[in-house]
Amino acid sequence: xxxxxxxxxxxxxxxxxxxxxxxxxxxxxxxxxxxxxxxxxxxxxxxxxxxxxxxxxxxxxxxxxxxxxxxxxxxxxxxxxxxxxxxxxxxxxxxxxxxxxxxxxxxxxxxxxxxxxxxxxxxxxxxxxxxxxxxxxxxxxxxxxxxxxxxxxxxxxxxxxxxxxxxxxxxxxxxxxxxxxxxxxxxxxxxxxxxxxxxx
Length: 200
Fold this sequence. Notes:
By secondary structure, the chain is α/β, with parallel strands linked by helices. The protein contains eight helices and seven strands.
């Protein structure tokens, strides 16, 4: 702990971020202290701006500044192919490839009894409502290849089975137990290309 209370508070706030330990929080805090005031204020303004402007798309639940989001508004997208992901960061990653032309549905998490996340805690009901009109012909389950992601994919596939649509899962070019976020673009594209059909 340092004698300057405001520095301690800043370290404490950085320490709350995922993957940031005490030493990294200290380094970030002292880095900001050494920068000109304008740089620190720009960072603070950027954080304020995203909290004020960014919201969830009412259709796919992706992050957006406009509702619906640009992907949902894009008439050139293949609306018959729906890719189901856990979080907005997964949409960003898949979009970076520039090869997937379908649309998305963001669950906002994965089923995890150990963490207290139940099926009703994620966006499954809104997914089923999107399937009901009959426009969607394939659902790609692109949840993470770990226990929670697999549990979620199995649960969702069972709910989708009565709709008589094609249900696929990303191929295992992705490492088991990993996160989509850490996959390189080539591996991710090969996984998307090699997706397999799911039979609950």
